[in-house]
C-alpha cells in the first residue's frame, strides 16, 4: 500500500510537471502571437429579447500554427499570469474599436477587460486615446468587467471605472452570479448592464433552482433600473422562459455563434473594413 501511495504521488508530480511545461510553452508562443498575426477577434451578436441585433461582443481567438485554435479559456489565464494580457488586451481593444468604427450601422461593440488591465498602467488613458485614434463614438463601446476588478483593489478599481464612465463608455458586469460578493458591488458603481452567467441559463429548463436564480437576478437588475442580458442562450424554450421573465437582452448560439465579422456583413452594413 505504501509503494502504491508513493507511486501515486510520483504520478501526480509528473502530471504537474507536464502541465507546468505546457503552460510555459504556451506562454512563450503567446509572446510572439501578436507579431505573427495569430490573434484575431470573433464577433457574437447581442440581441434584444425580440431578436433585434443591437451589437456584438468581441471574443479573442488564437490560431496557433501547430496547436490549431487555442481557446481563450486556456490562453487568457496564462496571459494574465505572465503579464502578456496587457499587450493582448490592448490589441483586442484597438482591433475591436477599429472594426466597429468601420461599420455603417452604429451598433454596440462589447470588449472584455481583465482585472490585470486595471492593476497596471493607465487603462482609462488608453481607452481615451483608442477612441480618438479609431474615431469610435464612446457611447458605442461597452467594456465587460468581472467583479475581480473590485475584489483586487476596490479603491483603484472604482476610480478607474469612474474615469472610464466619464469618457462616455458603458460598463457591463460580466458573469454575474459566479463570484462571491457581486451584490455589494452593485451599489458601489453605476453599471450599465448585468450579464447573467451562462451556467445559470443552460439549466433554466431542467433545474428549478437555476430558474429561481435567473428570475431573482432579473428582478434585482430591474430594481436597480439596469437592463439585464442572459448569456449562453441555446434553445427556444430557454429564450421563451427569459422573455416570460422580462429579460431585456440575449446572447448565445441560438441567436448566433462567435464568428469572423464577415459572416455578419448583412448586420453591420456592407462596408466593414475587415
Ligand atoms: P465570456 O466573456 O463569458 O464570453 C462568453 C463565452 O461564452 C464565449 O466563450 C462564447 O463563445 C461562449 N458562448 C456564447 N454563447 C454560447 C452558448 O450559447 N453556449 C455556450 N456553451 N457557450 C456560449 P469563449 O469565446 O471561449 O471565451 C471564453 C472567455 O475568454 C470569455 O468568457 C472571456 O472571459 C475570455 N475572453 C475572450 N476574449 C477576451 C478578451 O479579449 N479579453 C479578455 N480579458 N478575456 C477574453
Ligand atoms: Ca464577456
Ligand atoms: Ca460572460
Ligand atoms: Ca464566462
UniProtKB/TrEMBL annotation:
Residues 23-272 form the EAL domain. It comes from the Bacteria. This is PAS domain S-box-containing protein/diguanylate cyclase (GGDEF) domain-containing protein. It comes from Bradyrhizobium lablabi. The chain holds residues 521 to 794 of 801 of the full protein.
Amino acid at each position: 500500500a505504501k509503494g502504491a501511495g508513493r507511486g501515486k504521488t510520483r504520478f501526480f508530480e509528473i502530471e504537474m510537471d507536464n502541465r507546468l511545461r505546457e503552460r510555459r510553452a504556451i506562454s512563450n508562443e503567446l509572446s510572439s502571437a501578436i507579431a505573427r498575426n495569430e490573434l484575431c477577434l470573433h464577433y457574437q451578436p447581442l440581441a434584444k429579447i425580440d431578436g433585434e441585433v443591437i451589437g456584438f461582443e468581441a471574443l479573442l481567438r488564437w490560431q496557433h500554427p501547430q496547436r490549431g485554435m487555442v481557446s481563450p479559456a486556456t490562453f487568457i489565464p496564462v496571459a494574465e499570469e505572465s503579464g502578456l494580457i496587457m499587450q493582448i488586451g490592448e490589441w483586442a481593444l484597438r482591433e475591436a474599436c477599429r472594426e466597429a468604427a468601420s461599420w455603417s450601422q452604429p451598433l454596440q461593440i462589447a470588449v472584455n477587460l481583465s482585472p490585470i488591465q486595471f492593476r497596471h498602467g493607465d487603462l482609462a488613458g488608453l481607452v481615451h486615446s483608442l477612441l480618438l485614434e479609431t474615431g469610435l463614438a464612446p457611447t458605442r463601446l461597452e467594456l465587460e468587467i468581472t467583479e475581480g476588478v473590485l475584489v483586487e483593489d476596490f479603491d483603484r478599481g472604482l476610480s478607474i471605472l469612474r474615469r472610464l464612465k466619464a469618457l462616455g463608455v458603458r460598463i457591463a458586469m460580466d458573469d454575474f452570479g459566479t463570484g462571491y460578493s457581486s451584490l455589494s458591488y452593485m451599489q458601489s458603481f453605476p453599471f450599465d448592464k448585468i450579464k447573467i452567467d451562462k451556467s445559470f441559463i443552460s439549466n433554466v429548463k431542467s433545474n428549478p433552482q437555476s430558474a429561481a436564480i435567473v428570475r431573482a437576478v432579473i428582478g434585482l437588475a430591474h430594481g436597480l433600473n439596469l437592463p439585464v442580458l442572459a448569456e449562453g442562450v441555446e434553445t427556444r424554450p430557454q429564450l421563451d422562459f427569459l422573455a416570460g421573465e422580462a429579460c431585456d437582452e440575449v446572447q448565445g448560439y441560438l441567436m448566433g455563434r462567435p464568428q469572423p465579422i464577415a459572416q455578419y456583413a448583412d448586420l453591420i452594413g456592407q462596408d466593414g473594413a475587415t
